[in-house]
Amino acid sequence: MTEDILYLAAVADELAEFVRQTVPESETVQKYGGTLFTLRPEEKEGQFCGIFVHKKHVQLSFSNGAELTDPENLLLGSGKFRRHINVKSSADINFNQLEKLLIQASKL
After folding, report:
1. How many CB atoms within 10 Å of residue 78?
2. From residue 21, how far is each of 18, 27, 55 by CA, in Å?
3. What average pLDDT does the structure give for the chain?
4. pLDDT band at 4, cuts 50/70/90?
5. Which residues have CB under 8 Å from 91's CB, separation 6+?
6. Helix (H, G, I), strand (E, B), or coil: what is residue 25?
7. Domain housing 55
8. How far is CA 63 from the centre of its chain?
9. How many structural domains does the chain have?
10. CATH number for the domain that contains residue 46
């Protein structure tokens, strides 16, 4: 692994820990090359968010992101359902706003 990928893996771990702290009742599922977070593991598509490591960033994806209130315009994407945030370093993470998004997403 290159140094960049190791660094991004650490960023992904930090995000995953934050999701667990914010939504402690969530469970993880390894799927689609990333870590999905769900409150309904028995449902095939019950996840509310997922974390995926790419070559140059970590993506935090929200399954129903189009329904989230995002006053800070953190969410990217224009699909029918999903939205995401790309993170290149821990300094890019707005934890206060991310917490609000995670709580909303976990309730959908």
Report:
1. 7
2. 5, 12, 26
3. 94
4. confident
5. none
6. coil
7. 3-107
8. 9
9. 1
10. 3.90.1150.200
Amino acid at site 33: G
Question: Which of 41, 42, 51 lies closest to 17 in space, CA to CA?
Answer: 51
Phi, psi angle pair for 32, to nearest 5°? 60, 25
The closest of 105, 34, 30, 46 to 74, measured between CA atoms, is: 105
Rounded to whole angstroms, what are the CA distances from 90 to 6, 10, 37, 66, 100?
13, 9, 20, 24, 18
Q: Does residue 42 carry a pLDDT above 90?
A: no
Confidence of residue 46 (pLDDT cuts 50, 70, 90): confident
- The residue count of the chain comes to 108
pLDDT of amino acid 68:
97
**Contact by Cβ (8 Å): 13, 52:** no
Residue with tokens 């290149």: 88
